[in-house]
Amino acid sequence: MKLLLLLTVCVCGALTQANTDYDDDDAAEVKTTQPTGEHKDPRGHRPLTRGREVYTPVVAPPPVSGRGRYGPRPSVTTETKLQEEMKEIPDSGGCVHASETMGVLCPTGCELKTALLKQEHDVKPTVAQLKRDVEYLSQTSNSVYRYVEELSSEVRERQKINDGNDDLVSRYTDDLEVQHAYVKETVDVTFPQNIKILQAVLEKLRDKIQRLEKAVTDQKLKCAEPCVVSCPIPVVSGKDCEDVYRNGGESSEMYFIRPEASQTPYKVYCDQTSQNGGWLLIQNRLDGSVDFGRRWDDYKRGFGNVAFDVGKGYCETPGEYWLGNDRISQITKVGPTEVLIEMQDWAGAKTYAQYQQFTVQGEASNYILAVDKYSGTAGNTFNTGATELFGVNRTMTIHNGMMFSTYDRDNDRWVPGDPSKQCAKEDGGGWWYNACHSANPNGRYYWGGAYTKNMAKHGTDDGIVWMNWKGSWYSLKAISMKIRPFFVSK
After folding, report:
1. SS3 assignment, position 320
2. Which secondary structure element, helix H or strand E, spans residue 147, and what is its range?
3. How many CB atoms lie within 10 A of CB 248?
């Protein structure tokens, strides 16, 4: 009987120990959803024992909310469309665009020809006048030289006069000698120096004119045919892609935007078809052609290929790129902004996650992320973390409220200050890492989808991961992030 009682106590103790592997708050969830088996870990290599690391929850800052920058889009009537179709197509300088009514920019060297010809027209008369001045100066100097020679002869003749001449003649002779000395010095020294300087200037101008003529000739040869560019950019522009859409840019392609009047316009890809358009692409992965394992400054400025042409005569296909944290922060802090994250697996299946509020703070705060109001089919990884994990393991994968990290700027929450524990180093790209992730859109690109710890550089889930859809060990074929000013539709 005693033996049976002792055995019962041991079994109860073992069961109690098994139920304390995770936080007490999640004990009920652990019992009901996964009563048996080993739980998955987001890092793929860390132990799962309770208290493995101390984690302090983060209070995420609220994203920018309030009234949107735009009201509902105005409806376009059939009569308005007919009027637009009747508009005369502007001269595009030989560039072809899918929507010719918008016109295009043709940023080739052909405009250089006009500028160079104008400069040549302005410079040539000036050089010709300078040449005439130099020739006149040369002639004048010769005349003065002859005059000085005559004075010299006269002085020599007067020196032969009898010494008995009166003082007046002597004083006159002295004055003449002084004048002679002054003029001779001017002719022998000053004039030659000035002439040499003018001749040097003239030679430099001649050299510049020759280079100018060569440049004009080269441009004439290049511009013998109409201007053709690989990526003609529509003339229509705006503060963002929503503004571009409202200004008439309804095709998805590369545009110039200018968020602030004092800012230089820059190129972006506008998605004008997904969910009624107006989306500005801030991140895109589709073929692994661009390395996202970049430094802090690269993520700050942006990198990659905005768009390219696949044979249609304009850049309608987005490339792999990151817009840049400074630009993302600037756009999202202006007013309420929503983000659309679209992804695709290697079998062609698609899903999405959308947040009605999305804000990225400035560099002073290390670009803290703030998101809210999720909808979609991919899973709310930003706010809830990976649903396949429990307790501290899940809270470590929440991205909302995190600072941005790169391998040379560690701002994650995985043992801060420990250089051997840096999420960006292990997971292949810059991101709003916690300790470390449930989503890793900027990770390493793996062809085929499934990959293993042995394939990963550090044995971690460093692929293009969205855990709530495909788990840690499946790298997506494509993923993109797009932002748009939030506005209420009619």
Report:
1. coil
2. helix 110-159
3. 15
Q: How many helices (H) and strands (E) does the chain have?
A: 13, 15
Q: Are 227 and 95 in contact (CB under 8 A)?
A: yes
Cα dihedral sign, 91-97-101-103: negative
First to last CA, the chain: 77
Task: Check if the beta carbon of residue 459 is closer than 8 Å to that of residue 44.
Answer: yes
Burial of 12 (0-12, 13-18, 19+ CB in 10 A): exposed
CB-CB contact of 244 with 255 (8 Å): yes
Residue 351 φ/ψ, nearest 5 degrees: -155, 175
Beta strands at 303-304 and 321-322: parallel, antiparallel or unpaired: antiparallel
Report how far residue 165's alpha carbon sits from residue 152's, in angstroms, rounded to the nearest whole number: 20
- pLDDT at residue number 389: 87
Task: Give CA–CA dist 236/272, Å, rounded.
Answer: 13
pLDDT higher than threshold 60 for residue 103:
no
The answer to whether the beta carbons of residues 464 and 222 sit under 8 Å apart is: no
Q: Residue 137 pLDDT > 80, yes or no?
A: no
- Give the tokens for residue 366: 């290390």
265, two tokens? 């316009």
Q: Which residues pair with 339 in a beta bridge?
A: 355, 483
User: Please, are residues 443 and 406 in contact by the beta-carbon 8 Å criterion?
Assistant: no
- What does the alpha-carbon distance between residue 128 and residue 114 come to, in Å, rounded to a whole number? 22
Residue type, 487: F
Torsion, Cα 182 184 187 190, to 10 degrees, reads -50
Strands 337-344 and 478-485: antiparallel
Residue 371's DSSP bridge partners are 358
Mean pLDDT of the chain: 78
pLDDT by residue (tens digit) across 279-329? 999 999 999 999 999 999 999 999 999 998 877 777 889 999 999 999 999
Cα–chain center distance at 440 = 21
Burial 279-306 (b: 16+ CB within 10 A, else e): bbbbbbbbeeebebbbebebbbebbbeb
- Whether the pLDDT of residue 26 is over 50: the answer is no
Long-range contacts of 115-121 (CB under 8 A, 24+ apart): 116/212, 116/215, 116/216, 116/219, 117/216, 119/212, 120/209, 120/212, 120/213, 120/216
Provide the token pair at 23.
């936080």
**Bridge partner residues of 268 (DSSP):** 255
Q: What is the pLDDT of residue 9?
A: 42
CB 481 within 8 A of CB 466: no
DSSP string, 154-221: HHHHHHTS-TTS-HHHHHHHHHHHHHHHHHHHIIIIIHHHHHHHHHHHHHHHHHHHHHHHHHHHHHHH
Query: Average pLDDT of 238-245?
Result: 94
